[in-house]
Structure formats: C-alpha cells, structure tokens
Amino acid sequence: MRSGFRIGRVFGIDIRIDWSWLFIVFLISWNLSIVFGQSHPDWTTGKRWSIAIIAALLFFASVLAHELAHSLVAKARGVPVRSITLFMFGGVSNIQRDPDSPQAEFLMAIVGPITSLVIGGLLVWIAGLSAGPLGAAMAEPTEAISRLNPLSTLLLWLGSVNVILGIFNLIPGFPLDGGRVLRSILWAVTDNLRRATYLASLVGHGIAWLMIGSGVAMAFGIQIPFFGTGFVNGLWLAFIGWFLHSASAQSYQKIVVQDILEGVPVARMMRSDPPTCSADCSVSRLVHEHIMKTDDQSFPILDNGRLIGLVTLEDVRGVSRDAWDTTTVRQIMTPVDQLTVVTPDEDAADALNKLTQRDVRQLPVVRDGALAGLLRRRDIIKWLQLESELNIG
Q1: pLDDT over 50 at 88, yes or no
Q2: Of 261, 291, 311, at which residue does a domain stop?
Q3: Considering its fold, how many domains does the chain have in total?
Q4: Contact by Cβ (8 Å): 81, 71
Q5: pLDDT for 249
Q6: Whether 6 contacts 15, CB under 8 Å
Q7: Pick from 21, 391, 357, 89: which is nearest to 243 by CA?
Q8: 234-244 pLDDT per residue, tens
Q9: By residue range, what is the domain housing residue 81?
Q10: In the prediction, which pLDDT does 149 show?
Q11: Which ranges of the chain does DSSP label H, i.e. alpha helix?
C-alpha cells in the first residue's frame, strides 16, 4: 500500500490516500446522489450531489477513526505504527509487527469495530430525534426519511453505514478484525502464533469463498439473504471475497517467514565481503569498474574503514550521462546518518522488517562504526528458499 500521497500526520502516524480512494469516493457520491434523489425528490441536483460528496468524505473520516483506534491501542502496547492508508476497500493501518501477546492482539482488533458501532449508534440516535416517534417511523420508514432535513438524512446514512462497517469487521474472516479476534483466542489456547494464524486463515479462506460464491450467485439473479441480488452488488461481494482470500494468504505467509527468520542472526546470511567504493570515485568509474563488472546494485562507501555512505544503481540513474565524469560518488551517495543499518547479531526477522519499512533492497551491517557486511533482500529470499527445500526434503 505505497501508492498515493500523504495528506497529514495524526498522533505521530502518517495519513495517506491511495489513488483508488478517489475512484471510490466518486462512486459512493454518485450512488448517494441517486439514493437521496429517490428519498427527497424535492431536492435540487446540486443539493443532492453536495450532500452526497460530504457524506462520502465523512464516511472515510469515520473509517480513519476506526483505523486510528487500532493504531493508538497498538502504540499503547508498544507496537510501532508507520501509517494509515485510505483506499478502495476502506482503510488499513501499517502496523509494523504482530503484538507480543494474545491479549494485546484482542484489544488491538476489537477496538476498531467498537469505535464504528459507537459512532454509528450515536449518529443514528441523533438522526432519529428528527424522525418523530419511533413507532411511527418504523411503520412508515420511507415517509419518515422523506421528512428528514439534509443534516438528519446525512447523519442517518452515515450512522447506518458505520453500524454495518462495525458488524462486517466482526466477521471471523482473517485478516478482518473479527478474524484477528479469533486468532487471539486461538493463540491463547494453542500458545502458538503460527498455528493460530494458520487456523484463522483457514476460516478466512472459507468465508472468502462463501462471499465469492454468493457474489456470483447474486450476479445471476439469485436472492441472497441480507445482501439481496443484482449484478453490481454481486460483483462487489465477489471482489471483496477475492480481496479477503488474498489478504488472508499473505498474512499467513508473513507469519511463516517471520517464524523461519526468528532467532537467526544477520551474520548468517549477510554478504561479509561486499564490493566497496571510494567517495572520491567518479560516477563514470563506478559504472564501468564496479556496476558493469558485478551483479551488485549497491556499494558501501568507506573512509579509513568506516562506513560513511551507500551508493546504489538508483542514485546513478539520477545523474545525467554527460555529468558522469565530473560527478563524484560523494555527491550522490546516501550519507550514513540517513541510512538504516543493522548489526551482525541482530535478528534477521527484525532486519526484514526494516527492509520492508524503508522499501530498500539492502541494509549495511555495521559493528562499532565499521562495515561488517551487507544484507540484501535476495540473501534473505535465498535463505527462505533453502529452508523451505530442506523442510520439504
């Protein structure tokens, strides 16, 4: 979830917008303009669209509140959170690692749906104050809604959709919040995070296939309880099921990788003799004497044996070909104080997290300021492939 752009920072957490979010905001606004037009035929087109756009934006604000609840509990439990991204299917918190205990997992998971249900219930209650007596409103809901003013209509829709969001997230389909609640319970029972994730993923796969099957049935005109029927609704349900299935598989694979790497020191898989380069070397010399003669794409820069920076193929691509002879490596390298480094004794699972967080291909391995080696992403992949082959054999 790295596409899109950053819009701000809340409680030390970056808030990002994925490009797909723009499409879904338009789609929700367009759909709501039709819904509001049916329930309030006296509203002008401009009025319908204005309220629809505001409703769509407030919906994602409530999704952000849902994700912030997850993130703040995670930070309170000592789990770092890098960002929250709003995208087509709602929002996702970029929580850097799994919690340390089933109790922490349970609290982090359950607080999101609770937040949505509280927001939804409060908004529906406020909107209901304008709908008249409860009995009359329930007897003639369409008429009651038609009497609501724009603000009450907005609050009723927003409250209802938040209640639905909270209930949907409680479905025990990993990695939905309900699936994480299930995993926390299985983790507490089995005392094994990998086993608990596997079992929760199986449930998630089952629910995902049920959604996909129901969505296909709806697309062919079959009435599904609660979801109804229709090609578009069926397509959306099937698409959400496919997304859930994919996310469940990826979440389990991540746990397997972490489990394999846990307890393995970086020194066992790093390259202990990486090719290095002088800071005063020209870019032209770097290309012809280093890059062209090896398959390496990054080179530590040393000064009297101490690491002072790192230059990569991406850095070279940023230099015009005509300036290669006059540009030095020192001018394009990333200084050591801007690099993320690891130590030889550091856990490889933690190193992989750093590689993922920074979205880089390599990490310098440093001991007491001196270069001890270079850990590349492909070194970790090779280790994982070897471990998998040995386990199969």
Answers
A1: yes
A2: 261
A3: 3
A4: yes
A5: 87
A6: yes
A7: 89
A8: 888 898 899 88
A9: 1-170
A10: 86
A11: 19-39, 45-76, 102-128, 134-139, 141-146, 150-169, 177-190, 193-219, 231-261, 283-286, 313-317, 329-332, 348-358, 377-392
